[in-house]
Amino acid sequence: METDLPAAFIVGLLGGVHCLGMCGGIVGALTLGLPRQDAASPRFWGLQLAYNLGRIVSYMVAGMVAGGLGLLLAQAGPLQATRQVLSVIAGLFMIMMGLYLGGWWMGLARVERAGSVVWKRIEPLGRKLLPVGSPVQAFFLGMVWGWLPCGLVYSVLIWSLSAGGVLHGALLMGAFGLGTLPNLLLMGAAAGWMGGFLRKPMARKIAGGLVMVFGLMMLLQLRPDNLISG
C-alpha cells in the first residue's frame, strides 16, 4: 500500500492530458462570474481549490465503495488469490488506460459511454450550481463533477478493488485525485497554454506510455503461484 499511493499520485499527474478534455470546460465555467482582472485573485484560487476539493471527496467516496467491495470479494473466496486476480485486472486496466491516453486504442471510450447513463441523471444537479459565486457552490459542483464518466477514474477505481479495504480504497483514490490537482489548477490559470501543450500528440503518447509502464509493473509484482494455489 505504501508504494501504491505515490504510484496513484503519478498516474493522476500523467492523466492531465485526459483531464483537459473531460474537466477543462467546467474549470473555465468557474470564472464566468469573475471580472477578467480577478483571474489571479484570492477569490479565483478559492473557487478553484473548493471545486477540486469537492471532486477529490467524490473520488474518495467512490474509492471507499470499491475498496469495500473488493474486501467482500476477497473474503468470499481464497483471500490471497482473489486479491491477486483483482490486481491482475487493475494492471490490465492501467495498460488499457495508457493505450487510450496515447491514442493507440480507444476501447475505454465505450466504458465512458456506458457511464453516461448514470451521468445524465447527476449532471442536472451541477447545472443548477452555475454560475458559481462562492466556494461552497464550487465545492458541491466539484462533488457532482467527480462522477463524470472518465476512463482514467474508472481504471484507478478498478485498482481500488484490490486495495484491501474501505480506508485503503479511499486513500488510493485520494492520492490519484491529488495527482490530477496541479494540471487542473494550471488549467484554470493558463487554459490556453496548457491546452496547446497537452493536446500535442507527443505529450499524450509519453503520458500514455508511462501509465502503461505502471500497469506492467503492477503485473510483474504479482506471484503466479498465488493465482494457482490460492
Automatic annotation (TrEMBL):
Record-given protein name: Urease accessory protein UreH-like transmembrane domain-containing protein
Residues covered by the Urease accessory protein UreH-like transmembrane domain: 7-216
Taxonomic source organism: Thiolapillus brandeum
Transmembrane annotation, as ranges: 6-32, 53-73, 85-108, 168-194, 206-222
Signal peptide bounds: none
Keyword annotations from UniProtKB, A to Z: Membrane, Transmembrane, Transmembrane helix
Superkingdom as given in the UniProt entry: Bacteria
Any single Pfam family the record assigns to this protein: DsbD_2
